[in-house]
Design goal:
With 131 residues, the protein is an alpha+beta fold. It contains six helices and four strands. It has a four-stranded mixed sheet, covered by helices on one side.
């Protein structure tokens, strides 16, 4: 039986994701989306999954990921499911609803011309924009 470390490195779906992405955080977002959709089957291990994903990336790529940054990224941005971009006097704000409290949380702001970038950011971090 393979160890979890061997399983994760030898997973063709994971290797494809690593090879597809040059940005480590785009890779983490894609890996989490693949796990959520069932395309990437890893054991449910919480933060251990994040550490193993980081190790797999670091083993195959030269641009290394800091484990603490990856875990902060995952816990900060992946906890929001629904969000919206709202116009304000200064431009636009990306607001997400915290599923634990039900309260709106400010994520980022930008100019009106940055709407496309904000939508891409939201999609990358798994925030489904309401229309």
């Amino acid at each position: 039986m393979k160890s979890f470390k061997q399983h994760i490195i030898e997973s063709p779906a994971l290797v494809d994701l690593i090879n597809k992405h040059d940005n480590p955080f785009e890779f983490l977002a894609a890996a989490m989306n693949a796990m959520k959709s069932g395309k990437l089957n890893l054991k449910k291990r919480g933060a251990a999954n994040a550490r193993e994903l980081v190790r797999a990336w670091n083993k195959l790529k030269q641009k290394k990921i800091n484990v603490s940054e990856a875990i902060e990224y995952i816990t900060e941005y992946r906890r929001y499911d629904k969000g919206r971009i709202i116009p304000v006097a200064q431009g636009l704000n990306l607001i997400a609803t915290d599923p634990k409290t039900g309260k709106d949380v400010f994520i980022m702001s930008g100019n009106k011309k940055d709407r496309e970038k904000m939508e891409k950011f939201a999609k990358q971090y798994g925030i489904e924009l309401e229309k």
